[in-house]
Write a structure and sequence with these properties.
Length: 249
């Protein structure tokens, strides 16, 4: 299983949002780390075909996703950054609605809804309206809809945005436990969200890929004369060095 981006470019007027981005994703969790405006969401919207790219190719197992069309959408699960929920719906009715949009066969919908509700620890509150949920529970509803159809590629855009530390930790745990044998892209600007669960971390700035590697590899890349003296270097130090206002590209 392989998702490859090659020389992918996206412009909004004179602004280059993604600049000849190339990377090959295989099974595992990939943390996409960068400040707001780094190009994380643009890249994900290009993969989900919500935006039209200006150059480059995106292939899944060697086939251009535009050629795959609906076949690629069936293996894709997308959790958006915004909590775009119909708050008057119950969790179950919202998931039924999303299952229909994903064209899951009608006979399979009830079992599929039960499966994702249980996976997201929402089965006991499935009859309650989403508007009554906490921020963390709403995010779990969004994660549940991304799991509909058992997708092989999961795109998670700022999944913990706006959550308190406890809810962030809970959602990270849900993502980690549901990510096995999948390609998972988790975009964030919160270092702690990916340090513990990502198999590989991509550093993005101004639409470009600066570096990629494990947390240990990125920490080891820090120059000796920059590493902090009061504590062991961490991924947060990597973020500050490569992506901060006074970064060293």
């Amino acid at each position: 299983m392989e998702l490859e981006l090659r020389e992918v470019t996206k412009k909004f007027g004179d602004k280059v949002a993604l600049d000849r981005f190339s990377f090959t994703f295989r099974t595992g969790i990939y943390g996409i780390l960068g400040a707001n405006g780094a190009g994380k969401s643009t890249m994900m919207n290009l993969i989900t075909d919500n935006l039209r790219r200006d150059g480059g190719s995106i292939t899944y197992d060697g086939v251009e996703i535009k050629k795959l069309g609906a076949d690629f959408r069936r293996v894709l699960g997308y959790m958006t950054q915004q909590q775009g929920l119909y708050e008057g719906m119950t969790a179950e009715s919202f998931l039924v609605y999303m299952a229909r949009l994903k064209e899951i066969p009608r006979k399979a919908v009830p079992g599929e809804i039960r499966r994702v509700l249980e996976m997201s620890n929402l089965a006991d509150v499935s009859h309650k309206k989403v508007g009554e949920f906490s921020g963390g529970m709403k995010q779990r509803v969004l994660l549940a809809q991304a799991l509909l159809g058992d997708p092989r590629v999961m795109i998670l855009d700022e999944p913990t945005a706006g959550l308190d530390p406890k809810e962030r930790a809970r959602l990270r745990d849900h993502i980690y436990r549901r990510a096995q044998d999948r390609i998972v892209l988790l975009a964030t600007h919160i270092v702690s969200d990916i340090e513990a669960i990502a198999d590989c971390i991509l550093l993005m700035k101004e639409g470009r890929l600066l570096r990629a590697g494990t947390a240990a590899q990125l920490i080891a890349s820090l120059p000796a004369d920059w590493k902090p003296v009061l504590h062991a270097p961490s991924l947060e130090d990597v973020y500050l060095y490569y992506l901060g206002d006074d970064s060293h590209e």
